[in-house]
Amino acid sequence: MKVLKVTDPEFRKYGRVIKNVDLKPLVEAMANTPCPDDCVYVAGDPALEAVGTAKDLQRVYYGELPIQVGYCNGHNQKLNAVEYHRCSELNIAQTDAILIVGMQQDIEDDFTYDTSKMEAFLLPAGCGVEIYGTTLHYAPCGVNGEGFRVTIVLPLGTNGDLKLEHAAKNENACDNEDRLLAANNKWLIAHKEGGQAAGSFLGLKGENLTV
Questions:
Q1: pTM for the full predicted model
Q2: What is the percentage of the chain residues whose pLDDT exceeds 90?
Q3: Where are the alpha helices (DSSP H) in the chain?
Q4: Are the C-beta atoms of 133 and 84 separated by less than 8 Å?
Q5: Residue ranges of the domains in the chain?
Q6: pLDDT in tens, 163-189
Q7: In what order do the strands lie in the sheet with 81-84?
């Protein structure tokens, strides 16, 4: 698929480039994180959270709310699923990476979503973006089959384990967004070819996009 840049005007409806925080210390610390053959997500990494950049991001982008600073690293070339949160997410690239994104407003009334509406953007090494809460996204992709390292910043507790009963396993709850809830503050729509966990809502229609 065509890959634009996060600095292109087309990205503005999905997010914005981080310009007012020095990301270099965090990018340098990310070089010490693993880059496996598959894809790994760590919600919070103490070494990254100890970097001064983390405090700046908490102050500027989350209004001093508690945050978690982790990463999504590895090798990936496919969309597989989309997720959204009730908040912005920060993505900061230690290596070049590609983000495939869409708009929550395009989700159908039955919570299915057509992947043909998504766009791909290059997030260059050293650059960070704020991904708006209404932006559909998932794991980054590598460039030309290479591995990637991307810092992920979110409000504390996001993607943690659910503790209450939800409608995820109710096949008749097609009009209930609760069916999509996969973790704390994480609503997920998976593709049938994406290899998601049992019980995930398989609502992505069309191609499992590849970059």
A1: 0.95
A2: 89
A3: 24-30, 46-49, 52-61
A4: yes
A5: 3-205
A6: 988 775 555 545 589 989 999 999 999
A7: 81-84, 186-190, 181-183
